[in-house]
Amino acid sequence: MADLDDIRDGKNFGLGVAAKTEGFYLKGLNNSDWGLKNRLSRIFNKKSGRTVMLAFDHGFLMGPTSGLERIDLNIAPLAEYADCLMGTRGMIRTSIPPTCTKPVCLRTDTGTTILTEMNHNVLIAEQDAIRMNAAAMAAMLSVGEKGTEDKTIANFSRLVDIGMTYGIPVMGVTAVGKDMARDARYFGLASRVCAENGASIVKTYYSEGFEKVVACCPVPVVIAGGKKLPELEALELCYNAIQCGAAGVDMGRNVFQSENPIAMIQAVGGVVHDNLKPKEAFDLYNTLSAKKAPAKKAVAKKK
Question: Domains along the chain?
Answer without folding.
Answer: 34-222 (3.20.20.70)
